[in-house]
Write a structure and sequence with these properties.
Two copies of one chain form a homodimer.
Chain A: H1 3-8, E1 11-15, H2 19-30, E2 34-38, H3 46-49, E3 54-55, H4 59-64, E4 68-71, H5 76-84, E5 98-101, H6 107-118, E6 123-126, E7 129-130, H7 132-138, E8 141-146, H8 149-162, E9 163-170, H9 174-202, H10 207-214, H11 222-232, H12 242-259, H13 264-277, H14 289-296
Parallel strand pairs in A: 1-2, 1-4, 2-3, 4-5, 5-6, 8-9
Antiparallel strand pairs in A: 7-8
Chain lengths: 306, 306
């Protein structure tokens, strides 16, 4: 039996079959792995059983039969509940097993959890992803992995089934931090696009022309090239919703608070998004930020192309 | 004689032979055009005379002998002086001639000047550029041209000698506005990179790794890809200095004020850069913005690799 045979013999568990986790678990099944799944809402396990997955009734039960357990839930308290709550994974995780957390959650709490699990000889890799539901479905996510070298290498063959770019960014917790840095870059970039295009519009410069004339230069960004034309077309259908963005920004602001660094732009943007949530626009795409700038300018929040 | 022959017979004038204008005027000479130059500091005309340019003693004298006059000076009052000051262009510009202003200046004042000159049957194209001194030297600038269609088309063969991308963005003044939108995009993008990398560093994530892991995603930007690695290497040599950036941001804030739109991010960045100017760092690259965030975090402004 070679090392590779042993690896492919790992029994995998997956907790959290939402829009992201569901796609990722399906790709692990399709890659031929032995996958056991748990989800709070049991109906979401159906597409996985059709791919051959086994369903269990609690995280603890899942831990009892798995070597590597993937978690993909919404927020910090959710991961804590899955790990350490009643019938949680920690009750029955066995020595030598490994947790891979794909959720986007607190880097500090992540380090705490990894430490508690290390005392039980359970490994930990924080592996938040970017690339959206499409990336989860197609197995083309970017994975930012934090953990010990050996743990990340053990995880890598399975991460390759869910993502196309797997980057080991540093020790436990740095995967989460890298995801938060990514979110800072995303929203501040968005603020620039919003502020720039409102200025263009106010001065009689067609926003589509402004995007075309600037996107190839030093002010260019993914946001400008991809969301700029949508803003100009007043198309606010979500790639990533304001409500989800706000959850991630709250994590950024918590991390900045714990680390004692300022987050002047991110905190401003968090407040601006809040004004949009207050108007019931939390389900729109994060490029709706432009409407907050328009409101500040006394412009009416215009109706959208849905 | 074809229309093209007539165009190439235009006598060109160039006022302002600084680091940008000098390179652009040289490219007009190299393209075989008949070029007359004026510069306040006469010594800067020497490289142009070596390329065959004629030197005159005032803008007025230049206007008397030229069909198309290019202007590339520092700021709004400088253009006003060149146009309407004592011995300015307006004293002797002839009906049917055309001004092409490559300076970055006020869109509102630009429209005023164009209107005054239109009364004398003199055309006007505002054509600010981006791409830096290297772009000026190599003729690869991006030109954002505002003006009437016929005027821009008349200018285009000559703009092709100084730039590689010529975009007609709208009526007179919109070229300047587009340049200001570009500057908003540049600095807000920079703020995101600064805030993100300070967060990474504080949390024990290597900034170079953070750049590599995020630059291909939705938070990616020219700034992140090009200035992120320089920030991580503490290399603050200028591509574009803070002092020059501040002049352009002042124009953005003036325009936003006139148009009645908020510029919340740009105004914040203008103040942050001011704290760096107060420390004598105005000659550093605009990516030095990260030092302002570090100062807010109570981190010492570190010495640079020069």
């Amino acid at each position: 039996m070679t090392a590779n045979d042993q690896k492919s013999g790992d029994r995998l568990g997956f907790v959290g079959l939402g829009i992201m986790g569901g796609g990722m678990a399906a790709n692990l099944c399709r890659a031929g792995h032995d996958v056991t799944v748990y989800n709070r809402t049991a109906s979401k396990t159906k597409p996985l059983t059709e791919l051959g997955a086994t369903v269990v009734a609690s995280p603890a039960e899942l831990a009892a039969s798995c070597d590597i357990v993937f978690v993909c839930v919404s927020d910090t308290p959710d991961v804590e509940q899955v790990l350490f709550g009643a019938s949680g994974l920690a009750e029955r995780l066995r020595p030598g097993s490994l947790i891979i957390d794909h959720s986007t959650v607190s880097p500090t709490r992540t380090r705490d959890w990894a430490k508690q699990l290390a005392d039980k000889d359970v490994g930990y890799v924080d592996a938040p992803v970017s690339g959206g539901s499409e990336g989860a479905a197609n197995g083309t996510l970017s994975v930012m992995a934090g953990g010990e070298q050996a743990a990340v290498e053990r995880a890598r063959p399975y991460l390759d089934a869910v993502g196309s770019t797997i980057t080991h960014v540093g020790p436990v917790g740095t995967g989460q931090l890298c995801k938060l840095v990514n979110q800072v870059l995303v929203v501040v970039s968005m603020l620039g696009v919003a502020e720039g295009l409102v200025l263009a519009q106010a001065g009689g410069l067609d926003p589509q022309v402004a995007v075309a004339a600037t996107k190839g230069g030093a002010g260019g960004s993914w946001m400008l090239a991809n969301r700029g034309p949508q803003i100009a077309a007043r198309d606010f259908r979500p790639g990533f919703t304001i409500d989800l963005q706000q959850k991630d920004l709250r994590l950024v602001l918590e991390a900045a608070d714990e680390l004692g660094v300022p987050a002047v732009a991110t905190s401003l943007i968090h407040q601006l998004y809040r004004t949009l949530q207050a108007e019931g626009l939390g389900g729109e795409g994060n490029h709706g930020l432009v409407k907050a700038i328009e409101k500040l300018a006394g412009l009416t929040v215009r109706s959208d192309q849905r």
